[in-house]
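User: I'm curious whether this sequence folds into something compact or stays loose and floppy. Could you predict its structure so I can see for myself?
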Amino acid sequence: MTKNLRLTSLLILLLSVNFNLFGQNFDNAVVQDYNRNSISEIFIRYGDSYDSYIQKRFETYTSSNKFDINEIPLKYINAKDNRSNVKENIYMNYDRTAPVTKYLNENNVGLDVVSYIFNRDSKGKMDLNRIHERGLYTAKDTDVRLSSAKVRGLFEIEDLGHELIDNSYLIVYDFVNIRTEYDKTDKKDYYKGQVTAYLFQVQWNEKIEGMIFDSWIDEDTPADQIAEKIKAYNDIYIPVKCVLRVTTSVTNVKDKDNDFNSWLNSAMNNIGHEIQTNYSDFAVKTPITNLKPIRAKIGLKEGLKPGLRFYAYDNVMKSDGTVKKSRQGVLRVTNNIVDNRHVATGENPESQFRQIAGKKLEAGQSLVEKRDLGFSVSAGYSSTLLRGENTISIDGEDTTRILGNIGGFHLDVAYELFLNQNISNYAMIGLNVEGDALNVALSYNFGLSIRNFELLPYVGFGLDYFMAPNSPDVDTKEGNKYSAWFVQGGVRAHVNIYYPVQLFVACEWNQAIVIGETYHELAGTITEFVENDKVKDYKFRNITGLHAYGGIRICF
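Assistant: Here's the prediction. I'll summarize afterward.
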């Protein structure tokens, strides 16, 4: 009787938490439940000097806390061709989806993953300890509260571990076309190369569940059945399917110690970002639990870090009965992140978020992780606000001319620093081309961030340069005479249109501090000379003074 109860309980556990929603189409609705994924990481070996660096990286690297790790025997796949493939001076990055899929399935790696999840030992014995542990660790406080009202209590939470088998993946990394190149402009050596990741999902279904159940071995299994069950288990085939292929190019300065690890770290960070950006099942999903400030019951366990971007969604029913997700807002994780890397108790604290765009949010709306790079590009019109008079002599007569605004092109690139949870912080480099001059400035922007609006005081410094005008008295080889270093202070505003598109305006005061000889002569004057019997004059604006610009900003 005890044995039958054990088997019945196991079957119930294996088939638990399977449900369907009827009557409505929820294909495009956002789901709040986030089940923790598990991964196994494998790399392709080419038999060259880079293999040892890559293998060491995988042996010592700890993946994000948001993933469980399935330790399987397969650590790498040996390739028969070369790491570099060059045709007509073009580095080729071949798609290896088919051969890698074939290799993994021929070696039945999916069964290795399931064996680890069910804690199968060398004698074929299995238990539910690991899957129960993952179920408890993955469970959220809301799960615990709901479960505590049921007879089964925490056993209901342990069942969540079985859902996670569906979320078991393998990632195969392929590092190719790695080489060093010398840049004549920078006079530096660079590591260059490409990395491709193939994401495979274990194909788990009810048929496989039944086969696992039929070949289950534990301390109560009769000795005369063990050999037959081991054979039956080894005959189980669990396929894996490639669900994503992403690739990226990586360039890093070669350091003094000829260390390849800096390139490898960048490659892993970049490809990890590509995977989580392009595969929605790796995105964290959770409801908003509180407002003022906006909070949710996720934290380090889900891989949160300051600045991580989330979209807030509502499910909206349309007239035809379909339910669509509707974006309500955009948020970033603040520095106030809770450490929830333990079994949920029902009383976990909440991490805080800062809304940067969208409508007023409500508790219960869904937060969905949407990774970005934290950069923005702004382009528009710049103007040096010149005001005043200049008196010049033309044909022996003094003539007074009014200096007006000198406008031109503005471009800037900014990176958000996420230094403080209450204010915005940006490092920015900007370019202005106005008339016959241009300047480049580096600034630090910090200030108030309110939903759909940012007001950012800033300070910075830069270099202003008069480009050689069409004048016979200008020697282009004496460029330093035509430049001036300056400091600046100003204020900038961002107004959201529809994120990631915004309007920006700024006004600043620049003050020249180190001025070239010819720059001083040209600044704020009109230079006159005769060319081809025609009188020509040029307006030169002065960097010292008031400046303004505005335009469109794109965040990505």
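Summary: The first strand starts at residue 25 and ends at 28. Confidence is low (pLDDT under 50) at residues 1-27, 141-161, 470-474.
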